[in-house]
Design brief:
Elements (H helix, E strand, L loop, with lengths): L1 E7 L6 H13 L2 E7 L11 H5 L9 H20 L3 E6 L5 H10 L3 E5 L14 H9 L4 E4 L8 E6 L3 H13 L7 E6 L10 H11 L2 E6 L6 H8 L4 E5 L13 H10 L4 E3 L3
Parallel strand pairs: 1-2, 1-4, 2-3, 4-5, 6-7, 6-9, 7-8, 9-10
Antiparallel strand pairs: 5-10
Organism: Sediminibacterium roseum
Family: Belongs to the universal stress protein A family.
Protein name: Universal stress protein
Length: 272
């Protein structure tokens, strides 16, 4: 059984994030933790400087409190309706950052709604607050749009780095139920004509995925790569990092950011 955190910013309830967790529970039971944080704390949610200085954040306003209560009730009723084991965590303290970081350390996965989590903090997603959340959490993250098809194809973004390989292995360990999906490893790296250590990589992939192929992406970065990924039926993209070192030019932060910003498919992120 996996422990999965669904993180909500209090006044927003992500149907897309919940529905992904619900589908996982149908395949194999999960333990779902609904984590609700009021909007008045969002500006300092991932600010470590603020946390270290014990920066005071006012308690949630009454209007927000009512909305949060409604969303918690909705979460609980949905979990009961779909027979999901669940728990609710609320954090209205002035030290939200350490508490949230600690919870991510003891979770197998966090699911975030890519379109509405932190949306009020800046135009367009992912904004800087959403990106900070991706950067600082201590467990893998699944970023889910509000409308999507449940994955039928695992697209494994690989550039030969340890980060990318770690993400693929972590995805396989967390989601053995998706191992029967078609899996495509897309290799892209400047200057390398062949996939490095291809035989060992093939053995690893075949141990976890029933229908797997490896291709070298020959196109250009950016939109060309996004369009190529979008041709797959109901894909989930697996990436090794977000805003960290070790990415090739094709699979660097801008690529991941653009995939998330399009809100077309789930994206799984894990880093060493």
């Amino acid at each position: 059984m996996k422990k999965i955190i669904l993180a909500f910013d209090g006044t927003h309830f992500s149907e897309g994030a919940f529905n992904f967790a619900r589908k996982l529970n149908e395949i194999q039971p999960v333990f779902l933790v609904g984590l609700f944080v009021p909007q008045t704390e969002l500006a300092n949610l991932w600010s470590y400087a603020a946390a270290q200085e014990r920066f005071f954040v006012p308690l949630v306003e009454e209007l927000d409190a009512d909305t949060i209560k409604e969303n918690i009730d909705l979460f609980e009723s949905r979990c009961k309706a779909f027979n999901i084991r669940y728990e609710v965590h609320k954090n209205f303290s002035d030290l939200a950052v350490p508490a949230l970081e600690a919870q991510s350390r003891f979770a197998d996965l966090i699911i975030l709604g890519s379109e509405i989590f932190f949306e009020q903090m800046g135009s367009g997603q992912p904004n800087e607050f959403f990106e900070d959340a991706l950067h600082h959490v201590k467990c893998p993250v699944l970023v889910v749009p509000e409308k999507y098809e449940f994955p039928e194809c695992n697209l494994l973004a690989y550039d030969g780095t340890d980060n990318a390989l770690h993400a693929i292995k972590t995805f396989a360990y967390l989601f053995p139920e998706l191992g029967s999906n078609t899996a495509v490893l897309a290799y892209a790296h400047e200057g390398d004509s062949e996939i490095p250590e291809k035989e060992q990589l093939q053995e690893l992939l075949e141990a976890h995925f029933k229908n797997v192929s490896m291709v070298r992406y020959e196109g250009k970065p950016g939109n060309d790569l996004n369009e190529w990924i979008g041709q797959s039926k109901a894909p989930i993209v697996v990436c090794g990092s977000y805003g960290r070192s070790g990415f090739s030019r094709l699979f660097k932060k801008s690529f991941v950011r653009s995939i998330i910003a399009e809100h077309r498919m789930p994206v799984f992120l894990a880093h060493l």
